[in-house]
Structure formats: C-alpha cells, structure tokens
Amino acid sequence: MGLPSVAIVILNWNGKNFLQQFLPSVLKTTYANHKIIVADNASTDDSVFFLQEDYPQVQLIFLQENFGYAKGYNQALKQVEADYFVLLNSDVEVTPTWVEPVIELLESDKAAACCQPKILSYHQKQNFEYAGAAGGWIDAYGYPFARGRIFDVCEADEGQYNVNQKIFWASGAALFIRRQVFEQLNGLDETFFAHMEEIDLCWRAQLAGHIIYCCPQSVVYHVGGGTLPQGNSRKTFLNYRNNQIMLAKNLPLHQALYKIPWRMALDQISGLRILLTGQAGYFFAVVKAHLSFLSWLFTHNLNWKPVRKKKITSLNGVYKGNIVFAYFIKKKNKFSQVILSGKE
Asked: Global pTM?
C-alpha cells in the first residue's frame, strides 16, 4: 500500500509578496506523494500572473470572489482529490520534512482527524508564534489559547512541548485534516468568513468522536500578526462574533445558557476598557459583534450539528478554569503555569 496522498492548498488573496517569499520553501517539501495547489480568492493584484509565469507546476484554482477563509477553502477543496488536505497560510515558511511526521502520526491513530505542526515565529525563530504555537486549548468560557502562547505572551521554544499531544484545536495556519472527516463535518462554517473557524471545525470533530493532535517533530515558521491591529474593527468584529457563534453551536444547552451571557459581559468589560484608551472603534466593533450574534441566534437553524459522542468535559485540551482570571489576576503567562494550577 502506497503513501497517502496529500494536497497542500494555499488560499491566496492579493498575496503575491508572500507567495514570492514562501512558496519556494513549500516546493522543497520532500514527502513523496503530495501536490501543491493555490486557490485564488479573486485577487486584484498580479499574484495569479506571477504564479502562471514563475510556477507553472503549481495547480491553480480560481474562485469567483473573495469568499474569505472558510467559504474559500470549502469551495476550493470540493475540487481537490487527496487522502489528506493541508490548509496552509501563504505567510508560512515550511521545513523540507514537515509533512512526513504528521502523516505518520495521523496514520498511526485512525481516530485522529486533524493535526498541526509546531508553529514558530518567522521573525523570532526561537519563539512560538501566536496562531497555534504548540497546539490550541480552550478554557471553560470559550477563550482560546495555546501551548506556548497565553494571550499576547509567546514563550521561547526550549523543547518543553516536543511530545506529540492531543489538543483542542489545530491552527488554521497549517492545518492537516483527513478529507473524509472534512466532508463528514461539511467543511468550515461559512458564516464565520474568517477567524475562529478552525477552532469550530476541531470542536465539531471532537464532538463527532475524533482526536486533534499537535506534532512538534514537524516545524513551520509563521509571519502572522499576533495581536489585533489597532483600528482593525472588522477583525475585532469577526473574532468576537464568531466566538459567540461557536459557543452557541457546540456547548451543551445547559452550559450555553449561563456561559454565553457571562462571556458577553466579559467582552463588554474588555470593550469598555479599550474605549477608555480612546479606541472607540474597538468598543463599537464589540457591540456590533454581539448584535450580529443575537441576530444569528434567532434566525439560524442549528439542527445540522453533529451527533455528540462525548460530554464537553471529556474533550481534549479543555482548561476547566478561566484563562482571563489566571492571566490577569493570578499573573500566569505560561501554559505550564496555567495547567499546573490544577484546573486542567
């Protein structure tokens, strides 16, 4: 039996500079049975022309408009045949052997659905990168964090997370997923457009009985952005709205009834705190996000949710405490400090 087929799919929108910088590293991938595809979200720069001229060996998929991350990948992956999909950001530098250890891990555990590499910072290569680090976790109230990254604090990589680990969510910057599972879950939730959709996907995968992993023997370097850019109200809106939608979709009803109002209150406190610094756009983005979530809540049918096979407390990568309290009040800014607090 041959090696499983792997499709590395890069979603591009006006990303010529990133493609110029990082596509050469992807082309050095040593895994024998892989193909590289760029799905273009109706770019208005000359990135498509650049690819056609300089990298004719890279397959191109053309999308009619900028569908965002979620719908863009859903549309693109309908046109891709492979045993495994890799959703790879265009601003990621990969190492030549980054695919082999992940596929080996996924093949060794048939319950495994998704996996991410260890994600380090492109600009500070000894540090973990914000978007995923060494694997995503979530707290009891839906705040995501990662092994190696708590809020804006990214740890130095000293080998402390170098063991394969079951996690809650795998980063969308470099997400490996079985094609059959992606299709079983009906792909990414297109309501999200961008932000949080990979966490929602992994949550649904776990509820359907699958396992999510981080494989630190695979290493990539992500440019990313880390904290929200100041004044980017669209990004703030999506993060807050999508987090609420994710909680409503995936929490058991008895937990959602009290956790969602509590989260909304914490969000408003956060917005008011930022408002006092003069960033009115941030505050109004939070308010708009909550109004949009309430509109979604009362107009969408949630009957499509997968059948739950586990209780929420049994899922991997769930911190039973409040990461906001641990970080801001107890001053714990490393993953190991949070977990050793005994509430994991």
From this structure: 0.94
First to last CA, the chain: 41
Looking at residue 40, its pLDDT comes to 98
Which of 287, 303, 288, 68 lies closest to 191 in space, CA to CA?
Answer: 68
Opening angle at CA 26, ends 24 and 29, nearest 5 = 115
Position 227 pLDDT exceeds 60: no
Q: Percentage of the chain with pLDDT > 70?
A: 93
Q: Which two tokens stand for residue 114?
A: 């998704």
Check whether 246 has a pLDDT greater than 50. Answer: yes
E strand or H helix at 64: none
Which residues lie below 8 Å from residue 254, measured CB to CB, with a gap of 6+?
none
Angle between helices 233-250 and 253-275 (to 10 degrees): 160
Rounded Cα distance between 292 and 295, Å, is 5
Residue 229: exposure state from Cβ atoms within 10 A (0-12, 13-18, ≥19): exposed
DSSP β-bridge partners for residue 221: 93, 120
Q: Please tell me the distance from the alpha carbon of residue 292 to that of residue 59, in angstroms, as a whole number.
A: 37
Q: Is the pLDDT of residue 344 over 50?
A: no
Bridge partners (DSSP) of residue 61 are 39
Dmax of the chain from CA atoms? 62
> Where would I find the beta strands (DSSP E) of the chain?
6-12, 34-40, 59-62, 84-88, 92-94, 112-121, 136-139, 144-146, 149-150, 153-154, 165-167, 174-178, 211-222, 318-319
Contacts of 154 (CB under 8 A, 6+ apart): 121, 127, 128, 129, 130, 133, 148, 226
Tell me which residue of 149, 87, 102 sits closest to 121, measured CA to CA. 149
Q: Evaluate if residue 228 carries a pLDDT over 70.
A: no
